[in-house]
Design goal:
The protein has 347 residues and is of the alpha/beta class. It is 31% helix and 23% strand. A hairpin with a 5-residue loop joins strand 3 and strand 4. Helix 2 crosses helix 11 and helix 3 crosses helix 5. The two termini are 25 Å apart.
Length: 347
């Protein structure tokens, strides 16, 4: 049911304290279960895009979903700049909101800033698959990219493993050096900056690819037997090497086929649905097996599910409501509110 006070706006700063890493891991896993039960209703088409490359380099992406089990329904919308050199997808300055409505009445209930929930969801939805696919004896983590994706993957994986060494690389030497200093101190273990992707990948038990590069970053021959590679974006692992992995697991075939790089790999014969081992929802429910042999090399590749974004936004809305946070906005046809849940004026 919608709240009679209006529409609750949950700003970025509030979301930071309301959604923890373990919350995100739990909710993402629950949503995979919803997909397996068939209680997720996606829009048709599942994604709407407005891409204006010339002059503006401006991109709108809009997705929506109804989650019967919660229940809630929402629209995720974001706008970013990408000229091939600068990409603002992960920046706080780009537009990122989720609008939630009461699925029984259509009344608006919340507008949630999704910068933090998007950032942690991107990592949580992929890394949680290591519960079924990760090596049993994990000592070394390799991070290819140390921006938002790499940082949040580290946060997630540290809830699951006690690493002895973490290697990292990035485009700029000063960035990876600063990252290594910060996390060495925070974790009390060696975080080693390296000059090349190959140096990070070779010998690592788990590798996370989370860059903004549109080019191939990691090569399959660099991955040792028994390793797990987590691909969070575009072409992190050379598509020519996917068929050589022992298992390939993704979040959704349907949504990945909407991605240009993935679709091209399928259409050119580099990979096929028959070569796919499982979607993550099948691991969560036990319909498919995870790692079966220590020496298996396994790829986890995700593109992101709007169902998880909306579920996280609903969690943020309900938690903000319970804690008296956020700002109330007047709703058309409803009584205007003089003060927010936290005592903030709407003016």
């Amino acid at each position: 049911m919608s709240d009679g006070r209006g529409v609750l706006f949950v700003p970025y700063q509030d979301t930071l304290g309301l959604l923890g890493v373990e919350d995100a891991l739990r909710i993402c896993e629950e949503v995979y279960g919803m997909h397996a039960r068939g209680s997720v209703v996606l829009s048709s088409p599942p994604s709407f895009k407005l891409d204006v490359a010339e002059d503006f380099h401006n991109h709108w992406h809009v997705k929506s979903v109804l989650l019967k089990d919660i229940p809630t329904t929402g629209v995720r919308l974001y706008n970013y700049y990408d000229d091939g050199v600068r990409n603002t997808v992960g920046d706080l300055g780009c537009t990122r909101y989720i609008v939630l409505s009461d699925p029984h009445s259509g009344e608006p209930v919340a507008i949630v800033d999704e910068h933090w929930s998007y950032a942690i969801r991107s990592a949580a939805a992929a890394t949680l698959a290591c519960k079924w696919l990760g090596p049993s004896n994990t000592r070394t983590l390799g991070l290819v990219g140390v921006g938002t994706m790499g940082t949040n993957s580290l946060r997630c994986l540290c809830t699951m493993y006690k690493f002895e060494e973490i290697r990292c690389t990035s485009r700029r030497g000063e960035t990876r050096a600063a990252f290594a200093r910060k996390w060495s101190q925070a974790l009390g273990i060696a975080v080693v900056p390296m000059d090349s992707v190959e140096a990070v990948v070779r010998g690592a038990d788990i590798v996370v690819g989370g860059t903004t590069s549109g080019e191939v970053v990691t090569r399959e021959p660099w991955l040792k037997p028994g390793s797990t590679f987590i691909s969070l974006a575009r072409r992190e692992l050379d598509p020519a090497g996917w068929s050589k992995m022992d298992k390939v697991v993704i979040d959704s075939w349907e949504f990945n086929m909407l991605q240009r790089e993935f679709k091209r790999a399928v259409e050119t014969g580099l990979f096929s649905r028959e070569q796919l081992h499982a979607e993550i929802q099948e691991l969560v429910t036990g319909a498919k097996k995870g790692r079966e042999r220590e020496e298996e090399r396994i790829l986890i590749h995700t593109c992101g599910l709007v169902s998880q974004d909306v579920a996280l936004a609903h969690f943020l809305y309900r938690t903000a409501l319970d804690k008296g946070l956020g700002t109330w906005l007047p709703r058309a046809g409803g009584a205007a509110c003089g003060a927010g849940a936290g005592g903030r004026s709407t003016t």
